[in-house]
Automatic annotation (TrEMBL):
Protein name stated in the entry: Glycerate dehydrogenase
Pfam family, one: 2-Hacid_dh
GO molecular function: glyoxylate reductase (NADPH) activity; hydroxypyruvate reductase (NADH) activity; NAD binding
Boundaries of every D-isomer specific 2-hydroxyacid dehydrogenase NAD-binding domain copy: 127-291
Signal sequence range: none
Matching InterPro entries: D-isomer_2-hydroxyacid_DH (IPR050223), D-isomer_2_OHA_DH_cat_dom (IPR006139), D-isomer_DH_NAD-bd (IPR006140), NAD(P)-bd_dom_sf (IPR036291)
Similarity section: Belongs to the D-isomer specific 2-hydroxyacid dehydrogenase family.
This protein's UniProt keywords: Oxidoreductase
Annotated Gene Ontology cellular component terms: cytosol
């Protein structure tokens, strides 16, 4: 290994070896694995992104399963040689995983849908409001001791009442975001909605645009210079999906040229880094990939990731509906004898 790595071991005499390259929240996921004859090795380097060489060293010559992040052919083939059978991604998205490489090596790939829908939608709604009302700018201004008293032009932002909200990628999270943004007070006119003919129609008409697509070849740089140019000059753009959905270099230039245009970003094209200039933009609200960061959600994600692994060890079937995962998350109940979500189950004949 390039550097010594701190490992915490649970149930050292366990029959099955499970390696987690990140320390995950909660303890239920640990108990579930340890109580089912698993030796659990947890990397406690909380501020370190492990290299391929580090992970290869962790796998060693025997590893039944693996919980981690960025994986491709090199790591999947190493896991197969070590006798590994499963990889579980602590996320709903798995664009960071070469699923075809996993298929070639017979490795089941788990993910954690269903548990983070509302939490991610809440963060997207929060970014929409924070960007529209310039909350971060105002907070920094106040902390710097610059407030001398109320002024008519001080941090004037956008009123969202009665505005048009565009949702691109109206799946589980996008739909939950829409429900939050479309709440109405008593006595107001009912909210109306329509499905746009094209994405360009959404971008032209909407005052707030929230991005919720999956990341693939068709959505890479979905928001590019041409599409930024057709948006309203005072629009609010929010991204809590995947960073490369936005051409970040083009976004920085657009923010510079249009100071009333605002963005709220939870994800970035080259995480953990931002493109040059983005951090200097006062019309950008940026947070460090925390859309799923509620205590209940993150502990639930850890549980689902562990149960994907445990299910593969035990030879359990795959759960019929990965969006209905509540039975796996009941703290004091025995979870179903199933893998919550295996994305390549069909390809592997599971």
């Amino acid at each position: 290994m390039a550097k010594p790595i701190s490992i915490e071991v649970w149930n050292p005499s366990g029959k099955y070896r499970v390696v987690s390259t990140k320390s995950m929240p909660g303890t239920r996921w640990i108990r579930l694995l340890a109580d089912n004859d698993c030796r659990l090795e947890i990397c406690t380097e909380t501020k370190t992104i492990l290299s391929v060489d580090d992970i290869l060293a962790l796998i060693g010559d025997r590893c039944d399963v693996q919980l981690t992040e960025e994986w491709g052919e090199v790591l999947f083939s190493a896991l197969k040689r070590a006798g590994g059978t499963a990889f579980s991604n602590m996320a709903v998205g798995y664009n960071n995983v070469d699923v075809e490489a996993a298929n070639r090596n017979g490795i089941a790939v788990g993910n954690t849908p269903g548990v983070l829908t509302e939490t991610t939608a809440e963060l997207a709604a929060s970014l929409s409001l924070a960007a529209a009302r310039r909350i971060v700018e105002a907070d920094q201004f106040m902390r710097a001791g610059l407030y001398d008293g109320w002024l008519p032009h001080l941090f004037v932002g956008n009123l969202l009442k009665g505005q048009t909200v565009g949702v691109i990628g109206a799946g589980r999270i996008g739909s939950a975001y829409a429900r939050m943004m479309f709440l109405k007070a008593n006595g107001e006119q009912p909210v109306t909605w329509k499905r746009a003919a094209t994405m360009e129609d959404v971008l032209r008409e909407a005052d707030v645009i929230s991005l919720h697509p999956v990341l693939d070849k068709t959505t890479y740089h979905l928001i590019n210079p041409e599409r930024l140019a057709i948006m309203k000059k005072e629009a609010v753009l929010v991204n809590a999906s995947r960073g490369p959905v936005i051409d970040e270099v083009a976004l920085v230039e657009h923010l510079k040229a249009n100071p009333m245009f605002r963005v709220g970003l939870d994800v970035f094209e080259d995480e953990p880094y931002m493109k040059p200039g983005l951090a200097d933009m006062k019309n950008a609200v940026v947070v460090p990939h925390i859309a799923s960061a509620s205590k209940w959600t993150r502990e639930g994600m850890a549980t689902l990731a562990a149960l994907n692994v445990l299910g593969k060890i035990k030879g359990y079937p795959v759960w019929g509906n990965p969006n209905l995962v509540e039975p796996f998350l009941k703290e004091d109940a025995t979870p179903p004898a199933a893998c919550p979500s295996i994305v390549n189950a069909k390809q592997l004949g599971l």
